[in-house]
C-alpha cells in the first residue's frame, strides 16, 4: 500500500470528524429528526434510573419549557401542541429578543429536569442501548445548561459513529478486495453525504446503526469463511447489540445463523458442530437482548412495540397498501431523501444534481453487476442489502396504511444504514473496469465533492443563519456572507448550541479538509498507473 493512500484515508477520517463536529454544533435544538423526544428518553433514564413506558412517560418540564425559547420547523409546529416560533419568525426577531431567549434557554431551572409535562413521549418504545449509554454522560452534565448538554451528547455520539464507520467500512472493503484509491474514493463519497450527518449528529438511536451493519457483515463473513465458536460468539454479540440499538435490525437476525447453515451445505462440519455454533450465537442473543423483548411482550403484547405492530397492521392491510403506493414516485423520493434532507425543515438539494449523483451510482452498480463474483463476502454483502431493502418495503407499506396514504415512502433516516455497503460495492465494481471504472470514479468523486461544498456554503449555513431565499444564487449568497454578517452572526450565536467562535473555526476546518481530501482523492484516481485496482481484475 502506497504511503500516500494511507495518508489520504486518514485525511478522509479527519474530514468526516470535522464535518460531524460542525454539524452537531450548527444544528439548532430539536431540529434533528424527533430529537426532542429522543433526548427526552435519555433524560428520563438519567434522572430516574428507570426505563420509560409508553403512555406513562412524558417529556420533562425543562424540555417542554424550552419550546418557548427555540425556533422549530414549520413542519413540526402543528405537532408540538403549544405556541412556538418558526425559523422565519425567529429570523425577524430583534437582536435583543433573540439574546433574551437564549438567556432564558440557558437558565431553565435544573429542577425542571425531574418534573413531568403534559406532553407524552412517543419515542420511549425505542430499543434502549443508545439511550442508556448517553444517559450516563447526561447525568454527569446535569448541572450544565440544556444547549451544552445536547451539544456534548451530539458530539460524543457523532464522533463515535464516524470513527466506527471508518473502521467498519475499511474492514468490509478489505474483505471485498476493495483497496487503494478506489477504497479511499468510496470513503470520501460516504463522508460527503449530507444525510450521514443528518442521522449521526442528533441525539437518537439511528446513528449507531450505520457502523453496526459494517461490523456485523464483517463478522458474518469471517464466521462463514472460518467457523469457530469464538466467531459465532462475536456474531451473536453483534446481533444482540444491533437489536438493542434499533428493533428494525431484527430483519438481520437470520444472518446470525448463516455460518452453521453454510458449513452444512459445504459439508465442512457435522450437524453436531453446526448445532454448537448455532447454540452459541442464539444463547448470547437471548441472554443480552432477550430481556428487553420479553419486556415488550409483557407491557405491550408486541415484540418490537413499534407503531405497526401495536396498531393492527397485518398482511391484509399491507397488501391493500401495496396496491395504492405509487412505487415509482416513492422509490425516487426515498433515493433523493437518502442523499439529502434538510433535517426537520425537510429542505432539499437541487433535484437535477441529485439525479446525476443517482445516475452515476446506478452506472457503478451496473458495472459491478456485470463483474459480480460469487465470492462469499460479496454474496453476504449483497444479500444483506437486499434483506434490508425488503424491510424498507415493509416500512413503506406500514407508513402508507397508518397514514391513510398521506405518506407513501419510508422516512429518510431509515435508508442511511445502507449508505456504506452500497457505495463500497459500487466502487468495487468501478475497480473492475479499466476505462469506464476510472472515469466514472472521477466523475462520482467530483460530484460528491461539489455537493459537500455546496451543502455547507449554500445550504446549511444559510438555512440556519437567516438567509431566506429558497434558491441561493451566487451573487445573493456573496452579498449575504459579506454585507449581512452582523445579523447572521447574531442569529447563529443565539440559535445554535455551539459558540459562534467555535462554529467559525469548524467551518474553516471543514472547508479546508474537504478541499485537501477532494484534491488528493482525485489526484490518485487521475494517475492512471496508480489507480490501486488489482491488476488481475482489469479486463
Main attributes?
two-stranded parallel ribbon; 4 strands; mainly alpha; 539 residues; two-stranded antiparallel ribbon; disordered C terminus
What is shown here, in short?
By secondary structure, the chain is mainly alpha-helical. 67% of the residues lie in helices and 2% in strands.
Describe this structure in words.
The protein is mainly α and 539 residues long. Among the domains are: 45-146, no CATH class; 208-302, no CATH class. Helix content is 67%, strand content 2%. It is built from 23 helices and 4 strands. It has helices at residues 3-26, 35-48, 61-66, 87-91, 95-106, 129-140, 146-176, 180-190, 194-200, 206-225, 229-245, 258-265, 271-300, 307-310, 315-324, 327-339, 351-370, 376-402, 419-430, 435-465, 474-483, 485-495, 500-526; strands at residues 58-60, 71-72, 85-86, 116-120. A two-stranded antiparallel ribbon has the order 1-4. It has a two-stranded parallel sheet with strand order 2-3. The two termini are 22 Å apart. The model is unreliable at 529-539 (pLDDT under 50).
